[in-house]
Amino acid sequence: MPKWSLVQRLLQVRLSTCLFITLCLIAVIQFFASYGYYKYEHLAQESLRHHLYVQHNPKLITKKSKPDCRYNDILQNSKSVHSWDIPRKFNDFLPNGIINGSYTPEDCTPLFSVAILVTYRNRQSQLDIFIPYMHSFLKKQNIHYKIYVIEQQDERLWNKGLLYNIGAKQAMLDKFPCLILHDVDLLPLDESNLYVCLKQPRHMSASIDKFRFVLIYKSLVGGVLAITSDQYKELNGFSNRFQGWGGEDDDFAGRISKHNLEILRFPPHMSSYTMLLHKQEHKNDDRHRIMEENEHNSQKDGLNSIRYRVSNIKTHRLFTMIKVRL
Ligand code: BGC
């Protein structure tokens, strides 16, 4: 009996040791497999200000008596928020200075005007976190910005590309020179992540906790992307053909490279985001086929070919809501 239990014990030790070694091996392999992407190609921190696309909205009323806002300190002072510190309830959020989802710094003249476009359907609990969090984050950035939420109201398949085109059209009518296309479930974690356009398209969410802060592929532009309104027009926006989840951003990346534009990124610590939890949407099984078909189609399918009905544009204090039926 005692002999048997010794064998048993030895076997147990061996088994757990084997399991431990296997897990370590998997971790090491995974680390090396993704190492290149942790260290994705990005702009050097010292050079960031040379890449900024300095342009404010011509409609913005500025006072000569106010000095220009400064951005160097924001870009240099990395201050990270932990995802677990993000408030899930915002009872004490003060909307001071925000009108119709828009804010302008009080003490200085902003050099940037940015339209934040958020495509949306059935994610009320995420919107309730996103809106106050983003205002608290953006108000510290010395920029003029406005948040637009574009809601798909019908029961048809989700069409994010078309919703972005609708939001971009409105933001351009409102004369915004820079668009930031933003998923509602992503929250920036570092205060040095300045929410402005660069002279080239900028993929902002390169380092997301859900993906273990790894850039999952080099041409990824999904999540959060900043692009000037002129470039968006030049690319003819997004394809309107992607229905369901996925693909429209990869197609957009194709348009970017066809127009010889380059996707730029800030360093990883400045590009970190947390993703709010949600159920995975139904994937569009046709996305690869549509992408292939779209190869030579971008001039006919996009910003210039959108069909929809705006059921209403409503200005809330914290955002402008564009409700559409496709
Ligand atoms: C999809 C993209 C998505 C990416 C990351 C790809 O398979 O086509 O739309 O952004 O995965 O989730």
Automatic annotation (TrEMBL):
Family matches, as SUPFAM superfamilies: Nucleotide-diphospho-sugar transferases
Membrane protein topology class: Single-pass type II membrane protein
Cellular compartment(s): Membrane
EC main group: transferase
Family: Belongs to the glycosyltransferase 7 family.
EC assignment: 2.4.1.-
PANTHER family membership: BETA-1,4-GALACTOSYLTRANSFERASE, BETA-1,4-N-ACETYLGALACTOSAMINYLTRANSFERASE
Pathway: Protein modification; protein glycosylation
Biological role stated in the UniProt entry: Catalyzes the transfer of galactose onto proteins or lipids.
Cofactors required: Mn(2+)
Chain ranges of the Galactosyltransferase C-terminal domain: 202-279
Lineage, uppermost ranks: Eukaryota, Metazoa, Ecdysozoa, Arthropoda, Hexapoda
Protein's recorded name: Beta-1,4-N-acetylgalactosaminyltransferase
Entry's transmembrane regions: 12-38
Main location: membrane
Keyword annotations from UniProtKB, A to Z: Glycoprotein, Glycosyltransferase, Manganese, Membrane, Metal-binding, Signal-anchor, Transferase, Transmembrane, Transmembrane helix
Residues of the Galactosyltransferase N-terminal domain: 100-197
